[in-house]
Amino acid sequence: MADAIRLVPPRRLTPNPDNPRLIFHADELYQLEESIKLQGILVPLTVYEDGSKLFLLDGERRWRCSVKLGLKQVPVIVQPKPTRLQNIMMMFAIHNQRKDWDPLPSAYKLQELEEEFTSRQGQPPTETQLSELASISRGEVRRLKNLLSLPKTYRDELMDELGKPRSEQVITVDHVLEATRGAFALRKRDIVDDQDEERVRRAVVDKFRSGVIKNTVAPRQLARLARAVERDEVSLATARRVTKELIDNPKYSIDDAFRGSVEQVDFEHTVEQLATRLADKLHEHAAREYAVGEGLADALSDLSKVIRAILRK
Q: Which domains does the chain have, with CATH numbers?
């Protein structure tokens, strides 16, 4: 049974060691701080007692603001002390109803939740069990696990980025994940080897940072290039040429690579279909023994000039 609301000094409270929210953005705290200045803390903080300390279950942002404002007391509701597994589960459940956490810190905490469950149950949770434990979808579980599979250098970069104000953040987890998938698609079709797969990923992430690539899902065009190679629509040599340019040229975008390979094939395929339909119509015109009108004759004459110019290239 939870206790009634108490008033305690903020200094008695301690952040929850299992809180997946590691980053507290200054602009968000400022807005909450201004609200507390005007109205006070309207929703009590939820805590649990462990010895002489009170650990936060819910309300760390309110607590941080109360400390900054120099409040003498804050309202709290004391809950029974949870096990560590229960603690992490409650952290996910509580904050999942609020503003989204930054994905990478959540991924680290999800890993701890999985490890804690495994140590208690003797076997790791299934994806379904883990999603239920963390109160998130199975799709989100997979997304967070994909983040954990990233090389440490990228995870460190993302954590550094999270330390900046949101308005100054450039690289997000989605940028890195999309770059990773695009580079993997090229390696899967032997367009690049293992070493160049990493060089593609690094080049794409750096171009997101510099603004050469602006569309988060642009790396999906690399998967389209890989599929075009698989279907023999684009030669392996062409795919490797544009990929090398993507790696080596800081100004060369994925759109540039796409235009130099798949887009040209797609366009030529469309022209080929139109030319075939036109040829069929002309054969039908001849079969019907129609006289060639002046307008059609002029159009065919112009078309003939265009065709000869193209074939001369």
A: 1-81 (3.90.1530.10), 170-260 (no CATH), 265-312 (no CATH)
Q: Quick one: pLDDT at residue 100?
A: 58
Ordered alpha helix ranges (H), 165-235: 173-188, 194-210, 220-230
* Whether the model pTM is above 0.70: no
pLDDT value of residue 17: 80
Q: Which residues of the chain have pLDDT under 50?
A: 1-2
3-state SS assignment for residue 204 = helix
Rounded distance between C-alpha atoms, residue 125 and residue 131, angstroms = 9
Q: Are 40 and 71 in contact (CB under 8 A)?
A: no
CA proximity to 168, closest of 26, 302, 7: 26
Could you tell me the two tokens for 221? 């065009």
- Classified as helix, coil or strand, 132 is helix
Chain segment 238-294, per-residue pLDDT in tens: 999 999 999 999 999 999 999 989 887 778 878 989 999 999 999 999 999 999 999
* Tokens 């909450």 -> residue: 32
Q: Which helix (H) or strand (E) segment is 115 a member of?
A: helix 103-121
pLDDT of residue 260: 86
CA 283 distance to own-chain centroid: 53
| Centroid of chain to Cα 39 | 37
Handedness of CA 225, 226, 231, 233 (dihedral sign): positive
Q: Give pLDDT, residue 1.
A: 42
At how many degrees (to 10) do helices 127-134 and 84-96 cross? 70
Quick one: which of 54, 56, 49, 60 has its CA closest to 22?
60
Give the whole-angstrom CA distance, residue 275 versus residue 125: 58
Residue with tokens 């701890």: 112
Give CA–CA dist 265/257, Å, rounded.
Answer: 12
